[in-house]
Amino acid sequence: KYIVENLKRDNQKNSVEIISIKINSKYSKKILAKNTVGSTTDYQARAVTKFEINKNEIIEELIVDEKFNYQKISDSYEEKSYEQTIKKNLASSISQKLILRLSTTK
Question: How far apart, in Å, are the Cα atoms of 66 and each of 6, 11, 27, 40, 77?
Answer without folding.
Answer: 16, 22, 10, 22, 24
